[in-house]
Records
---
Amino acid sequence: MRRRRAVAAVGAVSAGLLVLSACDKPTPMATLTVGTSSVSSEATCGGEGEALKTADLNKCLKDKGIEEISVDPEGETVRFGVDPEIADNGWTILMNGQPLTDAIHKTYQSVPGSVFFNAQYGAQGDSTLVSIKEGESNEATGLWSFRLKKDEDS
């Protein structure tokens, strides 16, 4: 009887380890902070070190299920934070799919909230798609997307 329990316990542990080994490694995280509110996300696309095809990148930019955060464009700052792995590879902030910054190699960057709702930078309406593109030049290895919504009180 004891032997059966021991065999069953070893079998259960082995099965658990097998299930865990089949799990995908999580991608690095990116975080947006506005005031005291933050949203974080794993990669919308890629984030595993391999170059993304342009078609895949464009498809990701149209993804609807992304994190949202409100911004008062009259004085709030949007703070971008990335895992060191992303910073090591270089990253760019995209606004509606267009580069807003040159490649960044720090783990954080701050941008005035007014930029994201300024028509001069391509903003339209009360929300803006903001993405973090990992990789330098034209080669992207990951994309993290967020939607900035204009704070209704502004």
Note: The chain has three helices and ten strands.
---
Amino acid sequence: MTVTSDLAPRRLRDIFGTFASGLTVITGSTPDGPAGFTCQSFASLSLDPALVTFSPARTSSTWPVLRKAGSFTVNILPAEHQHLAGQFARPEADKFAGVGHTSSPLGSPVLDGALAWIDCELHAEYDGGDHTIVVAAVRHLHARHDAEPLLFFRGRYSGLAPAEGLLEASR
């Protein structure tokens, strides 16, 4: 085994990319209309109180707008919404073009067909190097049970393997 202390950004991306993660789109309502961005770094944080965390890049032009709004919705993407992950990741003027959505109880956009959504209010922010660590208080949530999640692994979109194959491989 070759061990390295190479902490170059490309090497970090390659290694960190071996941890499969889900994809979310964080959305909110602003005076200029709906806003949102793709966020891969999302996790549950606490059950009591109900808190989640995510980490937008410091270079994000969307997060400051959503921060100012104070509330936002985490839309967890299903496998069939790979196109939305790409659409909301680009710094385009209208990321909501052609995207169906309804309003959450707090007034943020819930993307049509989201695997789940979590309506939040900003709880705290912390320095996270080239990202901001956001802690959000959960206020409302909903999930559907008829779809699989969209995953990101080694720089590519991916899905779940059938559970039967995993069980047989572990015997």
Note: The first helix runs from residue 9 to 16.
---
Amino acid sequence: MERRATNMGANGSSATDDAAPAELDVESRLTDDNHDALKLWLRMLSCTTRIEAQVRSRLRTEFGITLPRFDLMAQLDRHPEGLRMGELSQRMMVTSGNVTGIVNLLEEEGLVVREPAAGDGRAYQVRLTPNGRRAFKRMAARHEAWIVELLKGLGEHERGTLLRLLSTLKAGLSTPEQT
């Protein structure tokens, strides 16, 4: 398995650069002298990268869709009334140009509709179409099954413990002295 660096293009596709084999990922640079916090960070990053690569591949193979398009549809699924383009950009933490490209493609496929936002002639509201909602529900169910499968190496107790520990970490990252 290879480690790949990906960059999302404006159209929601990803450019892929071949990198070193997985054995030579970021964790391989660690030594016994490195701080445990650095080791933990790189281990979490490595796991996240591997899971994301599997999800990207499975979405592409099974549904012919990219992860950014899936993510945009997930945002819209949580907000049936729709979201403004700027809100989508903020929620997805990508540029408005990236959101526009993704929305254009999803609109061409009949999965989303873009309408002028009420009260602001310059803004657009985007929402899932009925077809888009049905398609997303199918993808979301498969996505959840994949995540369950990918985390099967952890038992129920271990998952609970890890979830609590990561919640504690996340809360600590939100404090002003950490930013």
Note: The two ends are 35 Å apart (CA to CA).
---
Amino acid sequence: MTLLPLTTGATLGDIIDLERYPITDRSNPAYLALVADSQALLGKEGVAIFPGFVRDKMVATMADQTLALHPRMFHFRENHTVYFKPQEDGVDSRHPLRRLMKTEKDTVAYADIPADNVIRNIYESDEVLSFIKDVLGLDTLYRHADPLAALNLQGFTTGQQLGWHFDRSDFSVTLSLQAASAGGDFEYVRMLRNEDDDCYDAVRQFLDDPETQTIEVLPQVPGTLTLFRGRYSLHRVTPVEGDRLRLNAVFAYVDQPNVEFSAYARQLFYGRTSVDPLV
């Protein structure tokens, strides 16, 4: 496969299929229809996907660039409850707050992504930011101010996974760069809790017997941009199998300016508290 040069000189149209996703013209009727349809899907399904958002050759370039960074990735592993709340000893052993899920992944922090990596063109694009804002129906949206957390590249090797969990943020934005040889499926159970209730009984029942709920699967197709509301929908990435890594990018956007991680969160997710690289 012939890859495009690794350069930030590429235009947005070189990277994103602007014929299919005309995000540079927000007054275009096709753009307005795309946003309206996506908002409807996000409201009904809790997820909106945009297949072929990034052109195939650029996806291949970004996957190649991410693989080159894999030896420098921080190896994150944690056992956690599905709520990311502390484990409680005062409840019975089958309670969701006693049961631990396993998460293990490799991550490149924003500060460690070279300036010539194509993925930066997407995250740092005002047109992409406005498109995400419009689909979410927000008046304002900002790129995350944290120099480590704003944009991450993730690699999942054999056996690595994201355990069942609810997100702590209202939404996530990801871009698939490479599917695993096998496994690495994104599975979710729609609206298993709500704003007023953590629904411990329903979550316990599902963890005891997953067949009590409908598990939906989002195909991991390279080049697909995904917006997902994971605060109320339980979800996971199944263990990766085979030699080919599962690769994706995570774009962090927030509705308030100047948001940064705490020193504790930086240490937990990146193994350091400053932008100085790991040695």
Note: DSSP finds seven helices and 15 strands in the chain.
